[in-house]
Amino acid sequence: MIADIVLGFAWGDEAKSKVCSSLIKENKYNRTMRFNGSSNAGHTFYLNEQKIITHIVPTGAVFNIRSIIGPGCVINEADFWKEIDHLKQFNHDILNYVKIAHNAHIVQDRHKEEEVGETAIGTTKMGVGPAYRDKYARTGIRAESIDSFKGLLIDVYDEFYKSKEPITLLAEGAQALGLDIDWGTHYPFVTSSHCGVGSLINNGVPHKAIRKVVGVTKCYDTYVGTRAFQNILDPVLDKLADEGQEYGATTGRRRKTNYLNVDLLVRSAQMSCATDIIINKIDVLRKVNVWKVLKGNSILDLGSELSFVNYIRDLLPEIKFVFSNNPYTI
Ligand code: IMP
């Protein structure tokens, strides 16, 4: 088995699914899998120039690849079916390709009801935290209990370890290491799932199968939630949000912006053994023409695009970098 994994290296919204769709086009994956999170994710990519947004369904399903919602995910039944109905306009047969791990947990309506109104940390209100809470309290229910999922259920162990064909998997991360329940930078301003490589292994993928770990970030940072994100008032940061069209794909909220936090980038790369890093939206930074990064509590002005690119490459010389325009394509 071979597994490539795409991970968010910042606070989500790094354009991971554009990277996933590009990897799908250039590799022969026969499985894709989501291994964490829920419909809190908003994954935007393009197929035949059509803009497609998925939430819990892996990108691969739109491309006719057998795609798994793994045991580490939590799923709301109604939101799942709504998403399938929406995605049928792009792939009429999508349901033939979507599988759900029998042991994935369910976001129940009562979980979503707990998040009506403002939530303290500014969640996506998809009931994600309450669903994971009940999973770990052993009071949750699993996908195998949902009648409408019956025809879609699989056992990931059988899928990966009893397969007659060699598995080539693309694992599609959701959220990001800066939002990880354990390693997120500002608990409690985090999501409730594990967003790193370890999560993939916990979803049943043998660690020896991992080939590429592709970290994705933008050349500036964004965050949605209630914590303060900018350490200074700087009109350039607002300009970045405007030029980069920084609005959440799930909630429509305007994203807070800051210069690229290189400490988090290095930590994310080290902790995931990244082989590749894609830094998106360099065209947006080019429009604003301010080449700054955040290191510790200082803002470093690197002066030019070339110095910016070289500075980042030198932080992690062993990793293959791509600095990409928006949208990312290979
Ligand atoms: P929750 O995952 O809905 O519980 O939200 C917890 C925190 O994670 C909030 O700050 C959300 O805005 C953030 N979050 C969750 N999913 C995403 C995402 O896909 N992109 C960006 N932020 C997210």
What would you say this structure looks like, in words?
The chain has 330 residues and is an alpha/beta fold. It has eleven helices and 17 strands. The strands form four sheets. A nine-stranded parallel sheet has the order 9-7-5-2-10-1-11-14-17, sandwiched between helices. Strands 12-13-15-16 form a four-stranded mixed sheet. A hairpin with a 2-residue loop joins strand 15 (292-295) and strand 16. Helix 8 (235-243) packs across helix 10. The chain is globular, with a radius of gyration of 19 Å. Bound molecules: inosinic acid (IMP). Inosinic acid is lined by residues 12-13, 40-42, 121-124, 126, 128-129, 175, 179, 189, 191-192, 224-225.
The class by helix and strand makeup works out as alpha/beta
- Alpha-carbon distance between the two ends: 24 Å
Q: Major sheet, described briefly?
A: 9 strands, parallel
Query: Could you tell me the radius of gyration in angstroms?
Result: 19 Å
Percent helix: 25-40%
Strand order of the largest sheet: 9-7-5-2-10-1-11-14-17
In total, the number of strands is: 17
Number of helices: 11
Bound molecules: inosinic acid
